[in-house]
Amino acid sequence: MAFRALFVDTKVVPSDVFTYQDDDFYNLISQLAGPEEAALLKIQGIRTVHAFLRIPNIFDVFNINSKEVNDIKTKTCFILENDNYIIKSGIKASIEYLRDLFGKKQGELLKNTNRKRRTIWNVSSNTTVIPNDSLHTITATDNTIQFSTTTTTIENIDHHSFIIQSINEWCLKHADEIGISDLKLVEGTDYVVTLSSGFGHIRCSCRGSARLPKQGRSFQLSNFYRHLKGRRCSMLKAKQQIHNINSNLSNNVSIDKETSSQRTTTENIPILSSDSTISTGSKRCSSLSGINESRKKRQKN
What we know:
Layout: H1 23-32, H2 35-42, H3 49-54, H4 67-76, E1 77-79, E2 85-87, H5 89-126, H6 131-178, E3 191-196, E4 199-204, E5 209-212, E6 214-215, E7 218-219, H7 222-229, H8 234-267, H9 274-300
Antiparallel strand pairs: 1-2, 3-4, 4-5, 6-7
């Protein structure tokens, strides 16, 4: 049976994938292959793409008899009655796919690096020509470099504005979920954005950081949003505490105003004294006695 090469699309891998490590790396493996494959790499301490490509056989770990390995083995293998195992075809194919994908991506990055080096070498060699033409060559080279730098700067400004706008929209959308009605994050105070060619990074004021992988023409902010929703972001916790304190203060002020208005209304109601009540009662008694006496005189007559 002839071997047929399969197409591997490296566009699904971020250009800065070789800088990923720990959770960023495992999350990427889960997206590309699955959670079982990510757990298989994590238990072996394979934390980067470089480490993954240097290990010839990922499944050698199954020869170790331990509880952690056996737990993963039951999810990725068929356990036979004689305690032997057979690796599931899908798991094996996923690992082979990752190896082909990362290997091809590494080759593309090396080609791009070599191409840039050749371009730089050609530019530097073109600037050392005959004196009469050297001025024209240098001027053309300077214009090209200036145009490239200007284009890159404009792209970074556009990406920077897009990131800030996306974070502002996220704050409006998730304000109730976070528990801060007026949630707003200020760039330069609550977070700092760093952009370069094909690479983005956000550093939170709580000293946490998140990578911004670039997919297509835009940067993905899911890692930063995940950080904000997590329990480790002290910046957002502080904002929640301040918001709760201000809410309690405003509630107390409204209660005090309502209580004071009730007191004012009560004070304006007239209260009869006991003396006035007694005098009124005595007047009624005297009038009744007078009426009775007049009735008796009429009866005698």
